[in-house]
Design goal:
The chain is mainly alpha-helical. The chain has two domains: 30 residues; 233 residues, no CATH class. The longest helix has 52 residues. The mean pLDDT is 89.
């Protein structure tokens, strides 16, 4: 599980619960079935209208990604690329053919296979750039659902409030003893809309955007590494180049790890 998302969500819920308890508001006053239908139902329905049906049916899987821990280990791939560059420098690029099937990155496998097959470097680079752009486009489509949900939640919250106000104002000529309760019920939809947008939709959008950024960074690093191998650059130069993609705090550790591996070989 992603600790940042999980703990952040838990703290947000805890703060809300503590706030309600401290204010003395009865929990029953915060629940209104009609408001749930209007806010959540309306927001999800109109969001589905703006997205493909297939995406809407898979959105629970996309939402699940925000809760899961990212498995991207860019440090490991840096060492892997440098190791491959040493093999290519020592035995030639064709020697990488024996190692391609052992890689766990489809992007790296495809890029390496292209240079092994003798594909023009510019063409190979262009193809892999298209792969990166296509991934960004796919991920953007998934995030768009939550972007729209963040907009539709408050909109339907306000719509529900207006409906409640209309009903409240229409009773002003008669018994006014229930106006306070009616006003509270009218405002609940605004509360629900704000909760949907700020606790669920927007954090999920930003978390997914960060995940995409991590993947794109990794793919750019892999592409840079493969192109450097194809150009026959010195493995030490490649290492220095790839370290630019790594968090500065981890660079020294990677250098020592690489030196230890080199000594072991």
């Amino acid at each position: 599980m992603d600790k940042g998302y999980v703990f952040g969500f838990g703290i947000a819920m805890g703060v809300l619960i503590l706030g309600v308890e401290s204010s003395g508001v009865a929990w029953g006053a915060l629940y209104d079935l009609a408001s749930v239908f209007i806010t959540f139902g309306g927001a999800f329905a109109t969001t589905m209208m703006q997205n493909p049906w297939e995406l809407s049916m898979q959105i629970h899987k996309i939402y699940k990604l925000a809760w899961l821990q990212s498995n991207i280990d860019i440090n490991r791939y840096v060492l892997q690329i440098v190791s491959l560059s040493e093999i290519a420098r020592r035995e030639g690029i064709l020697a990488l053919e024996d190692h391609v099937d052992k890689l766990d990155s489809k992007f790296l496998t495809k890029a390496l296979q292209m240079i092994i097959d003798g594909t023009d470097p510019e063409i190979a680079k262009r193809v892999m750039r298209i792969e990166i752009e296509a991934l960004e486009a796919r991920h953007s489509t998934g995030r768009n659902f939550f972007d729209m949900l963040a907009l539709m939640g408050p909109a339907f919250g306000m719509l529900g409030t207006l409906i409640g106000l209309v009903g409240m104002l229409s009773s002003l000529g008669g018994d006014t003893s229930g106006l306070g309760k009616a006003m509270a019920a009218a405002l609940i939809t605004t509360l629900y809309g704000s909760f949907l947008a700020n606790v669920i939709a927007m954090p999920t959008t930003n978390k997914l955007k960060a995940r995409t950024g991590d993947e794109v960074t990794l793919m750019n690093m892999l592409l840079e590494g493969v192109m450097s191998i194809q150009a026959g650059e010195n493995p030490k130069v490649i290492m220095d180049k790839l370290l630019c993609f790594v968090d500065p705090s981890a660079r020294e550790m990677l250098i020592k790890q690489r030196e230890a591996e080199g000594a072991g070989n």
